[in-house]
Amino acid sequence: MTAVDERGMAHYLDMFEPPEGVKAELLRGVIVMMASPDLVHNLIVLHTQRQIPMDRWYPIQTQDVDIVGEESVPIPDLVVAAPDVLPASGHLLPSALVTAVVEVVSKSSVHQDYVVKRSIYAAGRIPAYLILDPIMAQCVLLTKPAGEGEDANYLSQEIIKFGDPIRLENLGIELDTSEFGTFPDVRPHRYP
User: Fold this and answer.
1) What DSSP character marks residue 169?
2) What is the 8-class DSSP label of residue 18?
3) What is the pLDDT of residue 125?
4) Alpha-carbon distance 71 to 177, whole Å?
5) Residue 4 confidence (pLDDT)
């Protein structure tokens, strides 16, 4: 068996083949695996993606994001970037090219989405991080990233209930959340 240090984890993840239906991402040197998402999750991603005008933005699913200075390769539910800044090809999209990321909370991803990824995306200076939470029927819009490493955070936080519109200033759009579903019979959590 070969030992793999934190610097080699990203390379190891490139060679790793998770089982079918499982997503694996590197978050602060830890490989986190998630089962296939629930239909509620997928429909929220679909409703969100369809509201982003493709003449100005590309909402991309399952795109690995490279966070400079981090031992992390997150795979947001949606990455939003301007078409003219995207490279012709590639596995990793540098966070400097990303305008926004969207994560839909699942029953098992609450801590990662609200805490771990919040810090990772802020460290990558991604201007907007939108958390869509079908457990709490709320959206959390985070903007103004600041800080470094695990101390990075977003300085601005806005909480919007499902059903109310969200103004995404940096994309120049208003997101309709009235079609967002929720998970039935799931215990509430304490985040954000």
Assistant:
1) G
2) P
3) 98
4) 33
5) 39
